[in-house]
Amino acid sequence: MGNGKINLLGQTLAQLQQLCADEGFPKFTAKQICDWLYKHRVDSIDRMTNLSLAQRARLQEIAHIGRETPVNCQLSKDGTKKYLFPAAGSYIETVYIPDGDRATLCVSCQAGCRMNCRFCSTGAGGFRGNLSAGDIVNQLLSIPEFESLTNVVFMGMGEPMDNIDAVLDACQVLTAPWGLGWSPKRITVSTMGLIPAMRRFIEECQCHLAVSLHNPVAAERERLMPVQRAYPLADVLALLRQYDWSGQRRLSFEYTMFRGLNDDLAHAQRLLEALKGLDCHVNLIRFHENGTEVPAADGGKPMKLATSTPSAIAAFESHINRHGGGKIVCTIRTSRGQDIDAACGLLAGKKADA
To answer: What is the per-residue pLDDT across 283-317, written as a single tens digit (0 to 9) for each?
Structure first.
């Protein structure tokens, strides 16, 4: 909504059909509006020229397109760009990552986050609101690099499964023939493992799934991720084992490497045991130090989180690939945009950036 008006961007075909029915428009008008929003990507209702003047006038009264241009852009020395958008009464960040013939957009789904992971700058700023499907889709359509995009990852600010309705609608807009028409294989949605919403996502959407794991030992994971108390990793993995991941849909696990906490070969072996039987990919992520701490296991002095050494990360990767039986494949994710706080775990949506 904006000024009490309906935000057309992010509306699904079914939602627009309901809007047209409520207004007495012909049913086919909804498909026409979809074409203008997602095929032609107009930023004004006036440009919907195959709608009657009366229909356009009525839409102007009750709705707006909902496009928002970024208020700031920062350019990293490695070519990564971080955009700052107004959304949910606050600000959110979106990261454009060019890489040869690929270009990935890392989108946000919430302003801030409720999950309070100890290592993440987004959660440290608290939760400020859910994004609408339109806010999510706007992040793609309102950057100048839209035409170059090959992939989208829901790995920016927020927990996607904590805003599941908007995320599912946004994925539908991105992949439906009446929307942007992308293959679901171009989209990956992350989660810490909010089980009810994750089940909905798996059953209602064909996009790839990435699970933030970070430690295979329950008590240690809880120190990093309070969500472990509500949705234990064992229960998350039990749900994932109910589905077939051997086809075109990919299951991956995100594993941020912390020095002396989860980066030795004993943890690598525990990870293999936890993931046994799953066809999956493990992404190792270098921790980007931001001064955060985790509670001590014995209740003593908190432990400051530090980056694992390159040799420890390489040894961890090698162990997984040697012993994963071909089903569990591990790679080290290249860190991008750290100099502009655009790397994993650093997004905060600060208006000061502008």
So the answer is: 999 998 878 888 877 777 788 899 999 999 999 99
Coil, helix or strand at residue 14 = helix
Q: Tokens 């999956």 correspond to what residue?
A: 280
Please give the Cα distance from 276 to 201 (Å, whole number).
Answer: 23
Q: What is the residue whose two structure tokens read 């009264």? A: 61
Dihedral class, residue 336 (left if φ above 0, else alpha if ψ from -120 to 50, else beta): beta
Torsion of CA 232, 236, 239, 244, to 10 degrees: -160
The active-site residue, picked from 93, 159, 254, 317, is 93
Helix (H) or strand (E) holding 58: helix 53-62
Taking alpha carbons only, the member of 153, 155, 161 closest to residue 188 is: 153
Reduced to 3 states, what is the DSSP secondary structure of residue 352?
A: helix
**Residue 320 and residue 330 in contact, taking contact as beta carbons nearer than 8 Å:** yes
**Per-residue tokens: 62:** 């009750």
Q: To the nearest whole number, what is the mean pLDDT of the chain?
A: 93
Select which of 34, 113, 330, 344 is catalytic.
344
Q: Phi, psi (5° rounding) for residue 26? A: -60, 150
Please say if 344 is a catalytic residue: yes
**Active site includes 330?**
no
C-alpha dihedral (271, 316, 79, 128), degrees to nearest 10: 30
DSSP conformation letters of 118-146: TT-HHHHT-EEEEPPHHHHHHHHHTSTTG
CA distances from 34 to 17, 69, 172, 175, 241 (A): 10, 20, 12, 13, 37
Q: Tell me the HSE value of 7 on the side-chain side, using a 13 A CA sphere.
A: 19
Whole-model pTM: value is 0.94
Residue 276 phi, psi (nearest 5): -50, 130
